[in-house]
Amino acid sequence: MAHRHSAAKANHGTLLNNIIIQAEGLSKQIASPEGLLTILDDISFSMRRSETLAVVGASGSGKSTLLGLLAGLDTPTAGRVVLDGTDLNTLDEDGRSRWRAHRVGFVFQAFHLLPSLTALENVMLPLELALQQDPAGAARSALDRVGLAQRVGHYPYQLSGGEQQRVAIARAFAPRPRVLFADEPTGNLDRKTGAAVGNLLFALREEAGTTLVLVTHEETLADHCEQRLTLEMGRLLKS
Amino acid sequence: MFRMAWRQFKRDTRSGELRLATLALCLAVGSVTTVGFFIDRVRLAIDIQASALLAADLAVESPYPLPIAVGQRAAEIGLANSHTVVFRSVVAKGDKLKLVEVKAVDAAYPLRGRIETALDPSGFASHAESGPSAGNVWVEGPLLPLLGLKRGDTLVIGKSELAVAAILTLEPDRGGQLFNIAPRLMMHLDDVARTGLVSAGSRVTYRLLVAGDKQQLRAWRDWAEPLLGERARFIAVRDARRELRSTLERSEQFLTLAALTSVILAGVAIAMSARRFATRHLDSAAVMRCLGATQGLVLRVFAVELGILGILASLAGGALGYASQALLAEVLSFFAPGPLPLPSLWPLVSAGLTGFIALLGFALPPLIALKDVPPGRVLRRDVGRLRAPGIGVYCAAMLAVAALAPWQAGNVTLTLYVLGGALATVAVLAGAAWLMVRALARLRTRVGIAWRFGLANITRRAGGSVVQMVAIGLGIMVMLLLSLVQSDLVADWRASLKPQAPNHFIVNIQPHEVEAFKDFLKTKGRVEPALYPMVRGRLAAINGRPVKARDYRDPNVRRLAQRDFNLSWAAVPKADNRIVAGRWWESHAAATDQFSVETGIAEDLGIRLGDRLTYQIADQRVSARVSNLRTVDWESFTANFFVVAPPGLLDRLPATYMTSFYLPPGEKLLLHLIVERFPGVTVIDVAALMDNVRGIIDRASLSMQSVFVFTVIAAILVLIATIQSTHDERRAESALLKTLGASSLRIVQGLTAEFLALGLVAGLLGAAAATLVAYVLAVAVFDFDYRFNPWLVPIGLVAGGISVALVGVLATRSSLRDPPIATLRKS
Lengths: 239, 827
Ligand SMILES: Nc1ncnc2c1ncn2[C@@H]1O[C@H](COP(=O)(O)OP(=O)(O)O)[C@@H](O)[C@H]1O
Ligand SMILES: [Mg+2]
Known about the structure:
The complex is a heterodimer.
Chain A: H1 2-15, E1 19-32, E2 35-48, E3 52-57, H2 63-71, E4 78-83, E5 86-87, H3 93-100, E6 104-107, H4 119-129, H5 135-145, H6 161-173, E7 179-183, H7 191-208, E8 211-215, H8 219-223, E9 227-232, E10 235-237
Parallel strand pairs in A: 3-8, 3-9, 6-7, 7-8
Antiparallel strand pairs in A: 1-2, 1-4, 4-5, 9-10
Helix pairs in contact in A: 4-5, 4-6, 5-6, 6-7
Chain B: H1 2-14, H2 19-52, E1 58-62, H3 68-76, E2 80-93, E3 96-105, E4 115-118, E5 126-128, E6 136-140, H4 143-147, E7 154-157, E8 160-170, E9 184-188, H5 192-195, E10 204-211, H6 214-224, E11 233-236, H7 240-290, H8 295-335, H9 346-370, H10 391-409, H11 412-443, H12 449-460, H13 462-496, E12 504-509, H14 514-523, E13 532-542, E14 545-546, H15 555-562, E15 564-569, E16 577-582, E17 594-598, H16 599-605, E18 612-617, E19 620-632, E20 643-645, E21 656-661, H17 669-677, E22 682-685, H18 687-704, H19 708-725, H20 727-739, H21 744-782, H22 792-812, H23 822-825
Parallel strand pairs in B: 3-9, 6-8, 15-20, 17-19
Antiparallel strand pairs in B: 1-10, 1-11, 2-3, 2-7, 2-10, 4-5, 4-8, 6-9, 7-8, 12-21, 12-22, 13-14, 13-15, 13-18, 13-21, 16-19, 17-20, 18-19
Residues 30, 39, 57, 59-65 of chain A line the site of adenosine-5'-diphosphate (ADP).
């Protein structure tokens, strides 16, 4: 593991201001009762550091699947993902988890806060997993930044949907990840709250210079992004 | 409908949905059967031990030869029988003479117990199947030096000469019953005639021993009684249980409660898995309703399915119980020679009943809720959620199970007392567990990520955590109580007993011998014993109404009603008697119209305070009012009487005196001296009986301690059931944690922390509860100071921590399998 890390660091110099995500011929097939089902078909693209990318497409077109492959949550049937200089295919699942810990952040449609942890503890979680110094202090300032300084001790069930998503955003940015993946972050929110959450997300990204991959239905949100990928039935539409 | 239920049962069995409930029920039935069977066997073993001291189950004794028909009848109805004749005679070797007590036995003797012989007095004793063969005699060791005798010599007995073939070292009915002490000589019954010693007018005791089925014995006795002469009397097995009843009962109560704790814990596990089962069957119930099934049909299908499960699991549980008690008995016989008698099968019935009540009480309520599922659920899944059955339903189920306890343990009051204590324990445990959950929440800010995550889980599922802590705590409590505390208590209680409980009774001391007897014992270095007067009388009437055996249902009580009692008189109550109703008489009171009656017999015979009792004593009738009821500490083995009168009421009647005292094992010689000096007295040696029965109880409770295994397993099933109900949540959580960068190891660490904390708290609570219960038992029941056992807490902590961490992590492993991508698919 250690030598891979140093290899990644060595690459880092040459890749500076260069490619952070490279997808090469990504395909995903799953076995179904009717035979093999192709969910993603031969997807290739790349992103430079600090770029923003919107992935759009109809429901069921494979957006979440693609996001999962890019973040190393799942493995492709064919092709590979090189994320921040590391070929994800070379890591096993636990290895990818550990690798993600301080490099990648997530925001989900369903918030996915851990119900047994308070807002503060939820934000501390990735910091601790990444073994960062003073997780509590960092988590507090992250919550402060999303305007929830008063709610640190509250449990998810005590927060509204918008507040929960703000906690999730704080959790995503607190470890200062290089890449942030967001899967329909406003999908479960009403229009107004969704807009506020979207603005917050982009504001924080701007400050930190984080690379953002955003899956969304919202045109306004997609328009904030510099690039756009459109998926249709698992294929990339040229745009 | 039955086929529908059967199909569903098979389907659910295959999918493993009923596995936990089946296991729990099987365990519940198994634990009750084990305890039931084992208690049964130990009771039988004690009875047999007592029988051994009579060499029979029942004997009839007469100074005249018994009618031949009596023995023949016994043989006809399948009872083993044996004749013995006992008489005294002088035997000669050369010019030396000695008085011996001859006992002539047939080949069937002994029917119970064992004879042992040796080749010389200091030699190795071995078991003999029956008495000496014709032409031979066996003699007791002490006779050898008295006559200058050795094995192989010939003795002159009356007109015959018989060879000394062996040394008699153990004779079953030598110690337990009335006997006169002169060295024993045992010969074959066929040789009696040749001695010419037994003729009309000589003092001979004829005995017929019988043994076999209880029912047949009773029938035989009823048949034979009218045929026997006035002077014949039946000798039943001494009721060894009366003396040791409370020791035995205490062990039985401990065990029954342990078994019930397992049943209730199993019930909780059943309730939880039934709820999960019902939730999963909501849809199929809704579809059934849609297709036209009535509510009643839906209910019946599930009820029948439950019934099938109940029957199969009960059968398996019964088999489990039988196997485990057989194992226990094996362990027991490892310590105690001689096999235990086989148990009767009735514990199966009571265990099956317990199992069914637990199943219906705990599993049916959520299934009943299924019938209310609206058919509309097939269209919209969010309608018709499962209603949670009220806590009251489960309380009722627990009470129903608990209500079986007195029936199984026998003693209603004490059981209710203990049950009340048990409920209080559960309440206290639950309260303490809840506080601990709150305390753990505080701890969270000061620990690392794994511990925080674990503690957070405990706090969030506070309800489930409390259930788990109480269940495991109870399991650990029962384990500690049965293993450590019980032996502590018994040891302390033993120590608190007078070490020299009387082991010999001397009866038949004539009034004119009383002073001489006291002096005699004093000169022999014994302290002056207390002598108690005793008259024999039969209870003739209560409140003027004649007492008839047929008025009582219980056959034991019937016999009691016909029996002669020993009545005594005293100015002050004995120290170990306690007046529980009415008042003892003033020592100077002139009013002699009073009786003091022991509570147990008063209850049996239906005697109440204030009743007027009439006794037939010899040819007189004596009547007096019951002025008080008293309890007697039978375990003290001191002389005690069911009925005591004030001085003045019985003094004119023909009385004899009795006493009891402790004689160390090595000083049997004193008994010989007493009998030589006072030939009329009878010595009863209860040492052997006490030792045997105590030994059985000790060893039985030792091996019975392992019954706690059932309670611990039941507690673990509750743990697993609680974990299963959180399965879906845990799956989602672990997938999310992996997404956020946690490795599987990290997640397992969190789970380990969670269950370790849970187990440590449960262990602590269990140890605390065990200490509390031990204290209450010591002070309130056993009546002595309890020494705190410092091992309880460490053992509780280790047992709780390790077992819960292990089981918890293993049971949650399957929820770790989901890949992180699952997080994106759920909304
Ligand atoms: N594990 C799976 N099993 C079966 N089908 C799946 C699985 N994962 C995804 N799919 C299917 O793949 C397609 C794409 O899914 P997804 O990536 O979630 O789409 P989107 O996020 O664009 O709505 C859908 O048709 C979905 O049903
Ligand atoms: Mg999606």
